[in-house]
Structure to design on (499 residues):
């Protein structure tokens, strides 16, 4: 295996097509020589072409490009390897009217990458396509709606390499008649199991240990999170398939994010953890009492947060119904006497917790092995971003679609996120997960500096509107935007599983 292309490079390839192809298995639209002219459809597939072009721009196997022998991912993947493809498969439906194209990584993007993985494996190895979506996600429905199942079934018929579609979650929930997650049920999870991985005092969360009892995750049991994150212990429940993989291919969807500002390559690794109750997303309460849920102290907001967590802990029944009624009354009081600020659930620019969790998960994915122990060797990693249709406003679960029409790719996930932030008009220095990724010393997330970024051929401009909690705090000052159309009252809508 060669040293491969320059890891400082991020490629940007345009699809030249209005959206995604619609018919699985999303075959190539041209008879590319490296594919032997097989499995080609008559209709154009600009997404496939953009994925292919991004591999060329990165310099993978450059000397043989355009010939039947071109094998770009052979720079990373050898026959016999175990390969994990990690798309963003967060939920089966958009909480708003924006549809699913701006919500999840499209199956046509996965298909193009999968073909080049299989080309590199040469019939020997195994491929897993997996994620741990929200507990309220109907995974089987998601596979159907996105065409992911049909795509994988179509490709399976053409290869001897086993291809698995895996839901890494340990627990799911059934929605009640209002669309709120309710009764919990066990899931099959990763067939290899889930492995606790403890970063201990080297965790990015360690500086917050004095307030560990305040750790929270919206929509999950408030008592569970501090059990796994307290002084001396910061552990995550990682997919064993991910930790045993030889190569990880990260395929995120580019969107705004209520808690993190932006979700892309770094944030997508949250989906390697099988139980989101192990993931601190924010700290309860106002900043003056050690929290980062919202900035201004308020007895009503404190009560509302307490009720949120009690509803999460309560099972279906009369108690849950009563708690939700009280919570609604407290929330509606905002219409009479407004709360001192508009933020809640850690969904604002002052969240100082989620970025630490994100970077810890990246470090675990890079350095931890199947037994949970950390090594010095970094797992080979490649990132390819689905930015054909991006998501703005209230991402990650209520985004509105924006046609951007590009694929971005690179070997360094921090540099990929840096490029994506600039492309959508966000200041990377105001996105903590991106800014701090370059400062990690132990088990570093990146081996580069921001100034090392080399975009080829050039970075386009596709501005997105940030979520309400980041509006006016994350944007680059030199990017022109239309006046954003946001809901003015975040308490007016029913709370849902939006972590």
């Amino acid at each position: 295996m060669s040293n491969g292309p320059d890891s400082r490079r991020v490629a940007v390839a345009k699809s030249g097509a209005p959206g995604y192809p619609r018919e699985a298995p999303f075959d190539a639209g041209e008879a590319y020589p490296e594919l032997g002219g097989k499995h080609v459809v008559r209709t154009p597939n600009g997404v496939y072409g953009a994925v292919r072009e991004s591999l060329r721009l990165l310099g993978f196997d450059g000397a043989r490009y355009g010939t039947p022998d071109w094998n770009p991912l052979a720079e990373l993947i050898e026959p016999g390897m175990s390969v994990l493809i990690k798309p963003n498969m967060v939920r089966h439906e958009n909480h708003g009217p924006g549809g699913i194209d701006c919500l999840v990584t499209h199956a046509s993007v996965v298909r193009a990458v999968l073909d080049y993985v299989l080309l590199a494996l040469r019939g020997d190895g195994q491929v897993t396509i997996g994620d741990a979506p929200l507990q309220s996600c109907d995974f089987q429905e998601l596979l159907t709606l996105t065409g992911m199942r049909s795509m994988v079934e179509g490709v399976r018929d053409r290869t001897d390499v086993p291809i698995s579609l895996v839901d890494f979650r340990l627990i799911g929930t059934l929605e009640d008649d209002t669309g709120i997650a309710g009764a919990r049920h066990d899931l099959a999870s990763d067939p290899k199991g889930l492995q606790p991985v403890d970063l201990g005092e080297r965790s990015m969360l360690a500086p917050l240990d004095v307030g560990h009892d305040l750790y929270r995750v919206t929509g999950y049991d408030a008592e569970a999170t501090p059990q796994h994150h307290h002084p001396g212990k910061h552990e995550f429940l990682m997919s064993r398939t991910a930790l045993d993989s030889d190569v990880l291919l990260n395929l995120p969807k580019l969107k705004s994010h209520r808690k993190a500002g932006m979700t892309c390559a770094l944030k997508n690794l949250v989906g390697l953890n099988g139980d989101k109750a192990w993931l601190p997303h924010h700290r309860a309460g106002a900043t003056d009492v050690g929290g980062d849920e919202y900035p201004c102290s308020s007895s009503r907001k404190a009560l509302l947060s307490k009720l949120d967590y009690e509803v999460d802990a309560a099972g279906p029944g009369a108690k849950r119904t009563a708690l939700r009624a009280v919570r609604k009354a407290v929330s509606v009081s905002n219409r009479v006497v407004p709360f001192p600020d508009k933020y809640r659930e850690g969904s604002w620019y002052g969240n100082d917790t989620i970025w630490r969790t994100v970077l810890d998960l990246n470090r675990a994915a890079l350095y931890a092995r199947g037994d949970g122990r950390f090594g010095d060797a970094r797992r080979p990693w490649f990132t390819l971003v689905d930015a054909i249709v991006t998501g703005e406003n209230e991402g990650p679960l209520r985004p509105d679609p924006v046609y951007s029409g590009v694929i971005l790719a690179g070997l360094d996930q921090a540099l990929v996120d840096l490029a994506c932030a600039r492309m959508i008009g966000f200041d990377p220095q105001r996105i903590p997960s991106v800014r701090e990724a370059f400062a990690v010393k132990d088990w570093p997330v990146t081996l580069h500096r921001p100034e090392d970024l080399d975009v080829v051929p050039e970075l386009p401009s596709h501005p997105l509107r940030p979520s309400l909690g980041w509006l006016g705090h994350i944007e680059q000052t030199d990017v022109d935007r239309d006046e954003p159309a946001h809901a003015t009252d975040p308490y007016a809508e029913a709370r849902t599983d939006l972590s």
